Amino acid sequence: MDSPFKADILKGKVALLTGGGSGIGFEIAKQFGNHGASIAIMGRRQQVLDSAVSVLQSLGIQAVGFVGDVRKMDDANRTVESTFQHFGRLDILVNGAAGNFLVSSEDLSPNGFKTVMDIDTVGTFTMCHEALKYLKKDGLGKKSSDGGGIILNISATLHYTASWYQIHVSAAKAAVDAITRNLSLEWGTDYDIRVNGIAPGPIADATGVSKLAPDEIDFQARDLVMPLFKFGEKWDIAMAAIYLASDAGKYVNGTTLVVDGGIWLSRPRYLPKDAVKQLSRVVEKRSREVPTGLPTSKL
Ligand code: HXC
């Protein structure tokens, strides 16, 4: 699908994306590049990075890959420094690296819990921390006419209610949302950096869906499908990212944009729509007949 944004909306910007070699992160990288940004991607697997970079370059995008694990302080530091060395500036940081697996709470070891917290939460903070000196207004590589940079944290909606077999990710993403809000307050005020998040719903062909809703689970048969259920596309998340990273979103700070088609709000329909119309009138009529003072429990 064509982008509704101008092709040069991110012209001259340099973006660093963790987890940018595949899935949603790669789509954001590609769309940022299509809209004029130069791209650095960070990931753990050299091969994945190499093929991602060559796809980006084949599209005419300036791109470079750095192998690293956001759990390692040295890797985080080296990647941010190398991005600056390579492109001479850093404008946008996207924290997309995440870890996940389905597991019930009693079967999750404390180290399994910690592993996901370390990748999603501590990794996000570490990258923000290392990138600050480049992202801030008048930071290294910035011209005086440049404003501050942008941070985008990829989150989820799991923790808005509660989610089966996802205690580790729910806790990690709740903390990521807290990081988003707190940094937006402190760094928005002090350094003109806008910090926002995106909470994707189930996205077709993304790792989250293949891990959390593998083909082996028959959701239809178990009547677990919600009425609003529809897969999103990686494109949907990338367009939200462009909105937040560009001047289109210049007054948006400290929010996590839910891009899920409304799924997190949905509950299975418990009455057919026509039945509601009829029943509602009957209930209303009956309630008007109730003598004043009679407890409604007597209805
Ligand atoms: C129970 C598990 C487990 C599983 C790992 N562990 N997999 N426990 N069930 N399926 C436990 C291990 O037993 C170990 O604890 C600890 O976790 C660390 O495991 P390692 O394999 O040593 O970790 P590592 O190799 O670093 O791998 C990290 C990982 C892995 C998170 C476990 O899945 C990974 O690297 N994933 C990266 C890609 C990914 O999953 N992305 C998901 C993005 S989707 P013990 O106690 O045994 O030492 C996404 C969507 C979010 O984030 C929300 C969508 C709605």
Give the tags:
single chain; binds hexanoyl-coenzyme A; globular; 8 helices; Rossmann fold; 7-stranded parallel beta sheet; alpha/beta; 299 residues
CATH class: Alpha Beta
- Which ranges are low-confidence, i.e. pLDDT below 50, for 5 or more consecutive residues? none
Structural shape: globular
> Between the first and last Cα atoms, what is the distance in angstroms?
55 Å
Give the oligomeric state.
single chain
Rg (C-alpha, Å): 23 Å
Which fold does the CATH topology refer to? Answer: Rossmann fold
Topology:
Blueprint: E1 14-18, H1 23-34, E2 38-43, H2 46-58, E3 63-67, H3 73-87, E4 92-95, H4 110-135, E5 150-154, H5 167-191, E6 194-200, H6 207-212, H7 234-245, E7 256-259, H8 273-289
Parallel strand pairs: 1-2, 1-4, 2-3, 4-5, 5-6, 6-7
Task: Explain the overall architecture.
The protein is α/β, with parallel strands linked by helices. It has one domain: 3-Layer(aba) Sandwich (Rossmann fold), CATH 3.40.50. The protein is 42% helix and 12% strand. Helix 1 packs across helix 7, helix 3 runs parallel beside helix 4 and helix 4 runs parallel beside helix 5. The longest helix is centred in the middle third of the chain and has 26 residues. It is globular.
Quick take:
This protein is an alpha/beta fold and 299 residues long. Helices cover 42% and strands 12% of the residues.
